Structure formats: structure tokens, C-alpha cells
Known about the structure:
Chain A is mainly beta. In chain A, 0% of the residues lie in helices and 51% in strands.
Amino acid sequence: NAGVTQTPKFQVLKTGQSMTLQCAQDMNHEYMSWYRQDPGMGLRLIHYSVGAGITDQGEVPNGYNVSRSTTEDFPLRLLSAAPSQTSVYFCASSYSRHTEAFFGQGTRLTVV
Amino acid sequence: AQSVTQLDSHVSVSEGTPVLLRCNYSSSYSPSLFWYVQHPNKGLQLLLKYTSAATLVKGINGFEAEFKKSETSFHLTKPSAHMSDAAEYFCVPYNNNDMRFGAGTRLTVKP
């Protein structure tokens, strides 16, 4: 059972480039979310999804897009990378709104 | 709306001494509450959770937390610290599909 898988683990982008961070879970969870982690700020919610075809914004959605075409996958797209998006990104999934969230191992993104 | 305050950004204890990591939350109604741990360069792991059952919650690795509604607190404790407890700890209230993380408390354990 792989749990939550994020790819890539590391990425360096140039300002203005676009890319997609991949997240997949094999636990048949309805709830999935993306967070960014910056020093001294904990994890901040970017976007979340309560099921296939349904997404919503979190605290810091600007500059990011998401879609949820299947239960398993929840990719995060950076449309035009900026240095302010340098961060560690975590994807999480959970069975329901009040149950434990399982996290991926993170993607360390650097924008130069 | 809900928010969380972890009162200490850094806690340092000696091995074998008690651990106290403080968390206060504010919410318009009682949330579910979680504590997560993150070891260096790792993902997050659930330590324990409160979901309106018993107010004293036991978690993994000897940690426990007590939900006190009158104080809006959910402090994390452990009777005796181990070197392997050195990590970042996050208090997380959870309402309506929305997990809001505290800034985290870094626990250092001295030999």
C-alpha cells in the first residue's frame, strides 16, 4: 500500500516557467489537499478537493491551479513560477473531513 | 473561522524529562483537533486526534493531549523525552474540510 505519492521530490524552475506537481493516493480517499510549508509559518492550505470534479481554494491559492478528474489524482499546477513560490509542497488525503490526513513525502521546489 | 496558536516556537528539554508543547485554538464551534509530528526532511505523521469523545487522548510514542474547552487548549505532553522525539510538532484544528496548521513547535532533546 503506497499511500500518498508525490512526484517529483525535488525541482528547480526558472521564473516564468510552468510545471505540474503530481499527487496520487491509493486509499480511495475522497478528500485531498495541497499545502506549502515555509519556515516559521507551518503548513498553509493552497487548494483542496472533496471529491472528483470538486475543488475549492484554501488560504493561499494565487498562482496555483488544481483539478480532480479522478478520485486517485490531484495535480497542482504552477502557471508562471515566481521566486515567492519557492517552498516545500505537501499533498494530503483523508477518508472524510474528521479523519486522519495522510501526507506525501513532499516536493522541494526552488524557483530562481 | 478558526485559528490556532502554538505558544512556543522552540522547546528544549533534556532526555528523560517531561515534554509540554502548548496549543490554543479559537473556533466558532468545537473542532476536531490533531497533533502531527514531522521529523527532519520527512512528511507528517499523525500523533493523536481529538474528535469529541474522551477529553484525554493518548497517541503514539507515549504522547498524550488533553482537550480543555474552557481554556480552548489542546496541549501535548509526554512524561519522559527520548532523543528520537526531536522533531517539529504541529497542532491542527479541523473543520469543514479545512485543516489549519499552527506555525509549529520545534522540540530539541539534549542528551
